[in-house]
Write a structure and sequence with these properties.
Elements (H helix, E strand, L loop, with lengths): L17 H13 L4 H8 L1 H8 L4 H6 L5 H10 L4 E2 H5 L4 H7 L2 E3 L4 E4 L2 E6 L5 E6 L24 H9 L5 E7 L5 H6 L3 E8 L2 H13 L6 E4 L12 E6 L22 H10 L3 E16 L4 H6 L6 E12 H11 L7 H17 L2 E13 L7 E5 L9 H15 L3 H6 L1 E4 L3 E6 L9 E6 L6 E4 L1 H9 L1 E5 H12 L3 H7 L1 H9 L3 E3 L2
Parallel strand pairs: 6-7, 6-9, 7-8, 9-10, 11-13
Antiparallel strand pairs: 1-3, 2-3, 4-5, 10-12, 11-12, 14-18, 14-19, 15-16, 16-17
Helix pairs in contact: 2-3, 13-14, 17-18, 18-19
């Protein structure tokens, strides 16, 4: 790709000079311009402040003239730095010629893009490129009014990266790539990565991110949703952090989808099914409307394409006023003329009122292509804490779906199970009581679920180590508690099925 600029945004570095990107990467690493290096230099408070787009603590921590302080001021804080100081650290002439740097005054240089160190899941030292002042994506109050601005890594980006299934695949698709963070992750386990975006500037920045991170180049295609993908192309993995904000107009390409309501997210999910290979995963972040007179779960079930299992998790719900305020602040509208801010706020509420929207949900949608006659669709609300990364938890969920779909009650009783690691039992009751009021099993990993069980369920789970079949264990429990083993075998499979479904037990085979 050649140089790309957009409206009044600054010109971007050339993405055709792989040699310069490699030398720049070597220089950055040589100066410890890495996630760990920054933490050591700045300290935890200043490092965390940078993630909130607050620069004053980092400015105070970089008043010296070491190579690392020079790079922080240049690329993270966007300060002009004397040419001579930069020349001691970087191949400055190459960076000027290829556009990574520009001259600022007689004897200073400045960065043309933000370069932010990012630690990969395996300890890789990566670099995320974004537009100046836009390194922190999401609702961070960036306040940029440029339609084609390209953000860096925000909370949504890292959430999607954490929940993505990371098994080796032949082909992966990053839809709406932005700064390229999902494509960068996918390049570690996909033979071929395709990245698309409606914004050509985003594709250019993705090429820079991949090159500067030492990752293979991706197949970059311009266009909306699945438009750049041929009808006969399928993928083993599709990921997207789309412009999911439900707004009364598409002011910002990175944020507003340009379709009414939640139609963009619905369209993305519905069209993904035909693009998946057998057994392939599609994973999205999305917003959805809570409409008067409609169950939000039913709305989402209607999005799931034929031939796909689905697991949909609602993580957060905001009423329409909270939602409007969040995204008005994201665009910096709260800093405008008060009358204009009020008019924009009114427009959001008018839009929601016309659509009978009372709230907006946010969460994750995972599809898996299946040949099963009756696909499994799980829609749940889970606002509680989790433990990232969750990719393996997501994969295991669908493995359990396959197991339970193929297992009737008799098969469950013949099966052997293991209690999943780091599950603890809690007994709840009044102090001094002989028996607890109820027993809770709680996970300390992954989704961190908790579920109530009766004394039989607790006893059953506690002895599941894969040695005995479920039926044999129940027979022993029946003898211990003086219950009819036939009746116990009849009523317990439903509880076993629930414990497997929620990830407390796993098949030992």
């Amino acid at each position: 790709m050649g140089d790309v600029s957009h409206t009044s945004l600054s010109p971007l570095p050339s993405s055709d000079r792989a040699d310069v990107a490699a030398r720049l990467r070597d220089a950055l690493l040589g100066a410890s311009f890495t996630a760990d290096g920054l933490l050591d230099l700045l300290g935890a408070p200043a490092y965390a402040a940078l993630a909130r787009s607050e620069t004053v603590p980092a400015l105070r921590a970089t008043r010296g003239d070491t190579p690392l302080e020079t790079l922080v001021r240049l690329f993270l804080l966007q300060q002009p730095v004397p040419h001579a100081r930069v020349a001691d650290v970087l191949p400055v002439q190459d960076c000027l010629e290829s556009g990574w740097l520009t001259r600022a005054g007689a004897d200073e240089v400045a960065a043309t893009v933000d370069i932010r160190p990012y630690g990969g899941p395996g300890g890789e030292d990566w670099f995320i490129v974004s537009d100046l002042g836009c390194a922190v994506g999401g609702a961070g109050g960036i306040g940029s009014r440029e339609e084609g601005v390209v953000l860096g890594v925000g909370g949504a980006s890292t959430t999607l990266a954490g929940i993505t299934v990371r098994t080796p695949v032949s082909a992966a698709l990053d839809l709406g790539t932005g700064s390229g963070i999902q494509a960068l992750h996918a390049a570690q386990h996909a033979t071929r990565v395709t990245a698309t975006d409606l914004n050509p500037r985003a594709l250019h920045i993705t090429a820079l991110t991949l090159a500067l991170s030492g990752a293979p180049a991706a197949d970059l295609r311009e266009g909306s949703l699945f438009e750049p993908i041929a009808d006969d192309e399928t993928y083993d993995l599709i990921v997207s952090n789309p412009p999911f904000v439900i707004s009364p107009g598409a002011r910002l390409t990175y944020r507003d989808g340009g379709m009414g309501g939640d139609d963009l997210c619905r369209t993305l999910v519905q069209q993904a099914g035909d693009r998946l290979s057998d057994g392939g995963y599609a994973q999205f972040l999305a917003n959805w409307q809570h409409v008067e007179g409609e169950e939000w779960q039913d709305r989402l079930r209607s999005w799931v394409p034929r031939g796909c299992d689905a697991w949909i998790v609602q993580r957060e719900v905001q009423d329409v006023t909270q939602y409007a305020e969040l995204w008005l602040r994201d665009a910096g509208d709260h800093r405008d003329d008060p009358a204009e801010y009020q008019a924009r706020y009114d427009a959001w509420l008018d839009e929601f009122e016309a659509r009978k929207v009372k709230a907006v949900g946010f969460g994750w949608i995972t599809l898996r292509r299946t040949a099963a006659a009756e696909p499994s669709i799980t829609v749940e609300e889970w606002p509680h804490s989790i433990e990232q990364p969750l990719g393996e938890t997501v994969r295991a969920h669908f493995d359990r779906v396959d197991y339970l779909r193929a297992s009737d009650d008799a098969a469950l009783l013949d099966g052997h199970f293991r209690l999943v690691a780091e599950v603890v039992q809690e007994q709840v009751g009044l102090p001094g009581a002989e028996d607890p009021e109820h027993v809770v099993l709680r996970q300390h990993r992954g989704m961190r679920r908790a579920t109530k069980v009766d004394t039989v369920g607790a006893g059953f789970a506690g002895v599941c180590d894969g040695t005995l079949s479920a039926g044999r264990i129940l027979d022993a429990i029946a003898q211990l508690v003086g219950e009819d083993p036939v009746l116990l075998r009849d009523r317990t499979p439903a509880q076993i099925r629930l414990l497997v479904e929620q990830g407390f037990l796993e098949p030992a085979e």
